Methionyl-tRNA formyltransferase (Streptomyces anulatus), 315 residues
Amino acid sequence: MRVVMFGYQTWGHRTLQALLDSEHTVVLVVTHPRSEHAYEKIWSDSVADLAEEHGVPVLIRERPDDEELFERLKEADADIIVANNWRTWIPPRIFGLPRHGTLNVHDSLLPKYAGFSPLIWALINGESEVGVTAHLMDDELDAGDIVRQEAITVGPTDTATDLFHRTVDLIAPVTIGALGLIASGQTEFTPQDRSKATFFHKRAAEDIRIDWNWPAEDLERLVRAQSAPYPSAFTFHRGKRLEVLSAVVSQNRYGGTPGRVFYREGEGVVIVAGADARTGRNHGLAITRVRTEDGRELPATEYFTSMGGYLTGRP
């Protein structure tokens, strides 16, 4: 098939590479300009550079809403558009233009985790699986019929970085497998159960601020979800920002006020956690490694030279 590709960052780059390696012909690529947004500088392999290396025409757009783009798409005479990590709304006159419409590739197990940063949100929420879905685009965000979907299991120590590397490897088989079904003439695919749909927003600084009223189990997943190269989860100690690089749920249970620097346990320092911590039935979060405001990384047992005091959400 003749394919136009809409995509950005490493997800788009992997999709374009899969298309270039396939039996299909990429006739045009549309991608976003480079961004200084913290999350968009991560996994930032250039779709434009890859297309140009292979002699594929490239258009740079923030939004696909201008007449020049529409005319170029008509001239491309595509059988299908393939989109992955396109960051703005694609209007119906664009996604419905090719003979087979538009195939969107999304890094979640739709209908759950539509929208942005699905791997991070899924890990924070304790999901047992994550994956990649290829679906036909329609008027609603990430809501079209599912053509192909593959999942991986989330392990007990997996970070968002681990899950990224494992799910990005699913892009090629999911995308090319879905195109194969469409090219074969199949037209009936799996409708999404919209009663199970969930939608999530882009990550921002407020989303990585530690709230010590959360249960320790949730905080431990937040720390894993904010693994390098993502910005680390942070708190404040004695008025200065302190990033939590690694942590585990404590073996013992600790009561008191959430945020209290309480006890050395194993290789970590336990912080009281949970809205009902005063009951003494909660596990704490045992922080094992931190980064200080001046950029020093060190074990928590070296940073916390004495017990007592509090970690807080604000200076």
In short: The first helix runs from residue 9 to 20. DSSP finds nine helices and 16 strands in the chain. The CA atoms of residues 15 and 171 lie 6 Å apart.
